[in-house]
Amino acid sequence: MSGHGDPIPMTSRKCGPLNGEAHVPGDKSISHRSLILGAMTVGETKVTGLLEGQDVLDTAKAMQAFGAQIEKIGDTWHVHGVGVGGFAEPDNVIDCGNSGTGVRLIMGAMATCPITATFTGDASLNKRPMARVTDPLALFGAKAYGRSGGRLPMTIIGAENPVPVRYATPVPSAQVKSAVLLAGLNAPGETVVIEREATRDHSERMLAGFGATISTEDTPEGHVITLQGRPEFTPQTIIVPRDPSSAAFPVCAALITEGSDVLVPNIGLNPTRAGLFFTLQDMGADLTFENMREEGGEPVADLRARFSPDLKGIEVPAERAASMIDEYPILSVVAAFAEGKTHMPGVKELRVKESDRIDAMARGLRGAGVRVDEGEDWWTVHGLGHGNVPGGFTAETFLDHRIAMSFLILGMASNAAMSVDDGQPIATSFPIFESLMGALGAQIERT
Ligand code: S3P
Questions:
Q1: Is the CB of 99 under 6 A from ligand 1?
Q2: Which spans are transmembrane here (predicted)?
Q3: Each residue's pLDDT tens digit, 197-229
Q4: Structure pTM?
């Protein structure tokens, strides 16, 4: 298991208005994919705007272990790949740290290469379910040997003679879909993934960008993605857009902090990712999309968020869950400052993220004086309205970056300060969180 340094307890207290521009880091999902697809392409792929969070750095190290050359020169990451099916067998265990996306996508990418690799991660990742990925990879001919319950550490023996696969995903997961598509790259013929609900489509877009023949179709069976194996990839120049999941934190902080007016420029509004922003608007948030445009085939806007004292609790549509799955923790914080109940159904995937996010948020919110009801697949936050959230609690973060950031945002508007037992995981996705929020006017300290 990978190491974890000493915990970093942090405290956030009520602050004045948040003002200014928040330039959030690159998109985590797109960053992982650009390194992995770059490593699967002969020649030099150049990536700028890469998220330099620990999760992505761990994926870069893993790609080097499989034979790619990766270096950063100035602001650009240069990836010299080995080609589809060209991964070398790593000399050592691959440590993916905290990253479910990293490990699951890499398992997919190596599962149809004739090599063996062993994967591990930190205490959070080693608890997470991997059978959702290894089950479809077995259909290609790969074998997986892990701990009981399909957990890491786990060894994957890649298929010598991979066959293409047709797979209907039983869970709404872009990681599972992407693992199957990446495995399908080195199988002859057509690999097909069928999802009941469309999940984030960054893999499909980037595979097409590198030159794969890939199509998507909505049918009565679901969202059907068809990929032609053994493509001729061409190296790419990739500009990673900024991460809407990171933008969520300064946006939500501005909505609940009196007098705030924050601009978060250049945020991708890919419909498979932007659900939170529409949900906040439904709650009555003063959140606008300025300068709407298209960049690299993705809709992009500058988000302006202003203090919104009259937020209302709502029923969040279950069918929106996939497009905002990482944003429920911070949404539950905003819901605490709204009037009335916010009910969030169709979210059992939250229970298998970096932590059980319903449980982690419910514990901290209750500690902060907010009523939360929950079931396996839903939860309800009973909002107290602006000015009425007590705070004054130390929340456990369970090695989960989004839990840590969410409670630090809560502390900016609760009556008493809010602490977290460990803010260290924030560096996995948003290494500049403290300085960025501090520059807007937040008061976050290491305690
Ligand atoms: C991701 C997919 C989602 C998301 C994760 C990133 C991706 O996970 O929660 O943060 O990049 O594919 P699931 O596929 O498990 O829903």
A1: no
A2: none
A3: 999 999 999 999 999 999 999 999 999 999 999
A4: 0.97
